[in-house]
Design brief:
Layout lengths: L2 E8 L4 H15 L4 E5 L9 E11 L2 E2 L1 H9 L1 H4 L3 E7 L7 H4 L10 H7 L3 E5 L2 E2 L6 H10 L4 E2 L3 H15 L1
Parallel strand pairs: 1-2, 1-3, 3-5, 5-6
Antiparallel strand pairs: 3-4, 7-8
The protein binds flavin mononucleotide.
């Protein structure tokens, strides 16, 4: 175990990637060695002491590659210090409340129970109609989800700093 932290993420339109990059940057600023990678590019988790794993939420679920990653690596992750985050809800207010009170999609909770993450966060996301395909546009118009960039960089920063504090 010679590397300190991995921030792995799953994104479709880039908003979650930017959250992951920010977390990685803050961990490095705190003096930790941190890699930031999309889950599909992670080859070996075993060198890392800590893993931060986050996914965008679509239709109440994590991106498939992030859910598969969590499942496939559950045994290694159970031996590491793990932090999870979901990103997605748009609009004002507590992001957990906007997600109807949950932090992690239901299907992933039994796996998370075995991994016992240090924390599970929810961060606001971004909705930009111009980027979406016609079906997604139709869905978003239908549910009248608020459009715009609602990411709360202060919340993301303080969460990343709390991780750095635990790891130092
Ligand atoms: C078709 C569609 C479905 C979505 N479903 C949800 C959802 O169920 N819950 C939620 O909080 N956000 C939902 N979102 C919002 C996304 O999670 C948000 O846009 C997020 O920031 C996308 O991250 P990404 O750019 O990393 O892919 C949805 C967005 C789209 C386009």
């Amino acid at each position: 175990m010679n590397k300190q932290a991995l921030v792995a993420y799953a994104t479709k339109y880039g908003a979650t990637a930017e959250i992951a990059e920010k977390i990685g940057q803050l961990l490095r600023q705190a003096g930790l060695r941190a890699d930031v990678l999309p889950v599909g590019r992670v080859r070996d988790l075993s060198p890392y002491k800590a893993v931060v794993l986050g996914s965008a939420v679509y239709m109440g679920r994590w991106r498939r590659e992030a859910a598969m990653f969590l499942k496939a690596n559950r045994k290694v992750l159970a031996r590491q210090s793990v932090w999870l985050f979901s990103s997605g809800p748009t609009g004002e207010g507590d992001p957990v409340e906007l997600l109807e009170g949950w932090r992690l999609p239901r299907a992933l909770r039994p796996i998370a129970d075995r991994i016992r993450p240090r924390d599970i966060a929810v961060f606001h996301g971004v909705l930009n109609l111009n980027k979406l395909n016609p079906v997604e546009k139709w869905i978003i118009n239908n549910v009248k989800a608020p459009l715009g960039d609602f990411r709360d960089w202060n919340a993301i920063t303080s969460w990343a700093r709390s991780i750095a504090d635990e790891l130092k």
